[in-house]
Write a structure and sequence with these properties.
The chain is α/β, with parallel strands linked by helices. It has helices at residues 74-84, 102-111, 127-136, 153-167, 180-190, 213-225, 235-239, 245-257, 278-288, 292-307, and strands at 48-52, 88-92, 115-119, 138-144, 173-177, 197-199, 228-232, 262-264. The protein has ten helices and eight strands.
């Protein structure tokens, strides 16, 4: 199976840095917040977007980012939140900054208690630094398995265990940014874990990468019995040109399987298409989760529990 780079992909550590292309994508400008479609429902108080990124000038990016500097600063994101009714948010470290988390920590400091963070770290990160991150609002470590997709699976297992050794003492969890075929290969190992972990973008199981509904059903089985949480995020990453209806059955299956383990993220600023309508993504929840009580669970209660927001 061919190794495929995702739109937010970068290989952050020098010992694994190799790319299938030298192309640097150019993100399009962000649409004005007021032009996003208004939600078809009133978002409940403390609704949380569990997956967004920010980019600000003055912070060094990695040596070879996969895209140029995006038009996605904090002020623009907060304007979108105000327009749509999003009260809480989880800032996920983008691969553009690699394991330099200074912008993430500075942003969490600005946002205060309404925000939590997910960092990317080197294996050499110190306990003191992790403790400092915790005090700032960090509650998870993101593992970029696009960057490690060619690693032998037993080596991946050991890497994940080493990172779990860093999260367990703090009550954090692991988040996987990974191709779907790596998810498929990891399912037997992940089934042995009793730790919480989150898989981005509904498992990222692309048909063009050879993934089947049977593979997705195995992921749902993992969600039933293990520590798996799935993000209802990035539907355009899976649907591609087929449109959002093409992934509706996947989102519904996640919610129906274990609604208390589903969370929603905007994936703002929608790299690399800044013109994407975030309000349209919110409105997908009307069809994905027609039950208002369960929708509140996904938007409010689940992220509050996972990220330790005040309740």
């Amino acid at each position: 199976m061919a190794f495929r780079i995702g739109p937010d992909d970068f290989k952050p550590e020098s010992d694994i840095m190799s790319s299938v292309t030298d192309e640097i994508l150019a993100p399009t400008p962000m649409r004005e917040a007021s032009t996003n479609t208004k939600p078809r429902f009133t978002l409940p108080a403390n609704s949380c977007d569990v997956h967004f990124h920010v980019f600000e000038p003055g912070y060094p990016c990695v040596q070879r980012p996969h895209y140029s500097f995006p038009d996605g600063n904090l002020a623009k994101y907060l304007a979108v939140c105000n327009h749509l009714g999003i009260d809480r948010m989880v800032l996920v470290q983008p691969s553009y900054y690699g394991t330099d988390n200074r912008l993430t920590i500075d942003t969490l400091t600005k946002l205060g208690g309404r925000a939590r963070g997910v960092v990317m770290v080197e294996e050499t990160v110190t306990d003191a630094e992790l403790d400092r991150f915790h005090a700032a609002g960090v509650r998870a470590i993101r593992l970029d398995l696009f960057a490690r997709a060619k690693w032998p699976r037993d080596e991946l297992h050991r890497y994940i265990e080493r990172m779990l050794d860093k999260t367990r003492p703090r009550g954090w969890h692991i988040q996987f940014y990974t191709p779907g075929y790596v998810v498929r290969d990891l399912i037997p190992f992940l089934a042995t874990l009793r730790d919480d972990f989150v898989i981005d973008h509904m498992g990222y199981m692309l048909e063009e990468d050879g993934l089947s509904r049977a593979d997705f059903d195995r992921l749902l089985d993992l969600m039933k019995t293990g520590g798996a949480w799935l993000k209802l995020s990035g539907p355009y990453r899976i649907a591609k040109a087929k449109g959002y209806k093409a992934v509706e059955h996947l989102a519904k299956a996640i919610v129906e399987t274990r609604p208390e383990r589903a969370i929603w993220g905007s994936d703002w600023p929608h790299l690399t298409d800044g013109s994407r309508d975030t309000g349209e993504l919110v409105n997908l929840l009307v069809d994905w989760i027609p039950d208002e009580k369960i929708r509140r669970q996904v938007l409010v209660e689940n992220p509050a529990a996972l990220f330790e927001f005040e309740r």
